[in-house]
């Protein structure tokens, strides 16, 4: 099964990609500059920054080439050279190196570079949920090579998003409920949702992109043995029995299982994961425990990646970028759209 590709790559995206070294295994564009969000006009959308992620097999070589082609994109860290930049990329935060507020072809862009191996690790195990979380939502896939392991990891990430979300949903729910839950996974515990992000961001992402979410998830929902999917009515019925929830918990990514066991198992007891998850499956608060586990992953990665972002962007760009985020947050608080309006 292949990832449903939203790959209508316009001339603009091809022109932007042409400015970078071409040894890229995956490139995608995401965010409010790419997909319309509720409450944003077409004119506003065209002024928003375009966000990209590039996965590369060899970060040292890629940064070497990019420093030759686009040295001005980098902060003062460029003086450390490509090997140190690659080390900062892989060893700190969420294993992504961002250059932000970069003018390219008439648009302002931000792009993150991650190694292909780190991306696969995050997709399969939710080590940071940083890039994996972005790929829970519709993205515009620009480049995707024939790496079978990477393709399988992209699909596995979507399946994990469904599994984690149905553990937090009631027995009967709507497609909208599921997509809101999925879209919110990577924001759970993110300190930027307290200061710096529009509080209605998750609802805004889903409301105007329901068809994109259906394209991304319909096959997975039809094939999932833990639920009954009724696409005509837009309804789901989830197996909430202890046995069903145990199967779902056992299918979760490894890091999330570890976070759940740490929350539930008292220090020094050292029970095995299967025994602990069996206990959680029978707990009426099972969904809340899963939510806490996800929040703990996102919280740590969002803080460390943001601290790293100050160095990779430089102080002036960090201040400029943060002020724009705060302005969007303020505008969003004035609109205050209701999630219930989605139904």
Automatic annotation (TrEMBL):
Cofactor field: Mg(2+)
Keyword Nucleotidyltransferase: yes
GO cellular component: mitochondrial inner membrane
Pathway recorded for this protein: Lipid metabolism; Phospholipid metabolism; CDP-diacylglycerol biosynthesis; CDP-diacylglycerol from sn-glycerol 3-phosphate: step 3/3
Domain of life the protein comes from: Eukaryota
Pfam families: Tam41_Mmp37
Compartments, as annotated in UniProt: Mitochondrion inner membrane
Function in brief: Catalyzes the conversion of phosphatidic acid (PA) to CDP-diacylglycerol (CDP-DAG), an essential intermediate in the synthesis of phosphatidylglycerol, cardiolipin and phosphatidylinositol.
Protein name, entry field: Phosphatidate cytidylyltransferase, mitochondrial
């Amino acid at each position: 099964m292949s990832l449903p590709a939203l790959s209508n790559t316009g001339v603009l995206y091809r022109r932007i990609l042409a400015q970078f070294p071409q040894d890229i295994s995956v490139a995608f564009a995401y965010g409010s500059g790419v997909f319309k969000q509720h409450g944003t006009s077409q004119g506003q959308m065209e002024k928003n920054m375009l966000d990209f992620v590039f996965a590369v097999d060899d970060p040292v070589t890629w940064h070497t080439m990019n420093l030759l082609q686009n040295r001005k994109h980098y902060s003062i860290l460029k003086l450390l050279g490509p090997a140190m930049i690659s080390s900062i990329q892989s060893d700190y935060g969420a294993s992504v190196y961002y250059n932000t507020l970069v003018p390219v072809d008439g648009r302002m862009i931000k792009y993150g570079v991650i190694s292909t191996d780190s991306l696969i690790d995050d997709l399969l195990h939710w080590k940071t949920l940083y890039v994996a979380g972005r790929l829970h939502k519709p993205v515009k896939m620009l480049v995707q090579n024939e790496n079978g392991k990477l393709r399988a990891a992209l699909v596995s990430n979507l399946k994990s998003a469904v599994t984690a979300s149905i553990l937090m949903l009631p027995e009967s729910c709507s497609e909208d409920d599921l997509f809101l839950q999925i879209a919110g996974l990577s924001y759970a515990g993110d300190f930027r949702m307290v200061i710096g992000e529009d509080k209605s961001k998750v609802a805004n992402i889903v409301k105007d992109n329901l068809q994109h979410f259906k394209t991304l998830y319909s096959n997975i929902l039809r094939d999932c043995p833990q639920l009954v999917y009724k696409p005509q009515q837009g309804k789901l019925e989830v197996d909430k029995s202890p046995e069903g929830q145990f199967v779902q918990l056992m299918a979760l990514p490894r890091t999330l299982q570890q976070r759940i066991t740490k929350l539930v198992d008292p220090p020094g007891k050292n029970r095995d994961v299967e025994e602990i998850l069996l206990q959680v499956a029978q707990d009426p608060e099972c969904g809340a425990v899963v939510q806490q586990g996800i929040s703990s992953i996102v919280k740590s990665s969002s803080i460390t990646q943001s601290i790293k972002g100050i160095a990779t962007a430089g102080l002036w760009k960090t201040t400029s970028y943060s002020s724009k985020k705060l302005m969007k947050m303020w505008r969003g608080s004035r609109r205050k759209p209701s999630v219930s309006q989605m139904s």
